[in-house]
Amino acid sequence: MATDRTSLKLNDERKTLFDKASEIVADGADDDPPRSDVIDAALTHLIESHENLEDVRDRYPPQTIKDCCNTSVLGLRYRTSIESKWR
Description:
The protein is mainly α. 51% of the residues lie in helices and 5% in strands.
């Protein structure tokens, strides 16, 4: 039986990303949200961003969308030659 549990290996880069994300999720300078809350917020943002991109992809030119929503994380594929792959 497969489990939904996983362990995260925190190398320096991932620790830095968690620290930055925690600051965004925190409810103030003294708040230290659990990593599960930070992951939930990041996953929710990723899903919402993808849905938002899908909603506008037929209304605006691909270059406009790329210029406004460019990110190094989201995988974007358009019918033109603009393509940004997952890392």
